[in-house]
Task: structure prediction
Amino acid sequence: MSRFTKKITTEIRAKNNEKDMAVVILSAGIGNRIKSNEPRSLIKIGNKTLLEHQIDLINNNFEKHEIIGVFGYEIEKIIRKIHGKIRVVENQIYENTNNSESLRLAVNNTNKKNIMFFHGDLYFNDAIFKNIDFRKSFLVVDTKEMMKQKEIGITINNNKAAILSYGLPTKWCQIAFMTGKELKILKNILHKLQGSNKKMLSFEIINKMISMGASFECYEPDNMSIIEIDCIKDIKNENFNL
Result:
């Protein structure tokens, strides 16, 4: 087989993964620190809500995908705002669980062969989705201090994620893509999710996956802008013309 044939086959495989993908928005929590009567997803930034911004970016950068939003707090308001735009899944026990349970619900509600998820409090530009190799599972990382110091960091060896933990200078951007072996490992973990494990954070799920043999490339997009909206001050202090 020629190198040219191999390259074309590789490109087709990457494109097929991209088109057979569920994009999951994890946004079930209350978000007390934002000090708003609305769910964090419905906070207005300019003339759009945060959720509408996320949906538009996904739709503008992918085709033949599906979007799944996992919500809990004030879900009726969210449904009224985005009715018919995405698949809505309710985490009815959001007050007593965490992202692991929301992710389990999303995975159980799709038959797509590839899953990308991100946290619902992220505001980012479409550079996040550019020039990605969808043949392999990956995590989006930040070395330019766009994510806050208190957020989860990541240790990287040979461009592979080794461990996610607090206090590390390189940050995980709370965005992950899973395909192939990694998605199988994720499903195995989520299938057995019970009791206190439903309170696991998403980075703890990823660490558990790595311990079971999962491999994640680490990807930092060129020209990426990303902000985690944690409080009203984040909206007032940042330039949102991303």
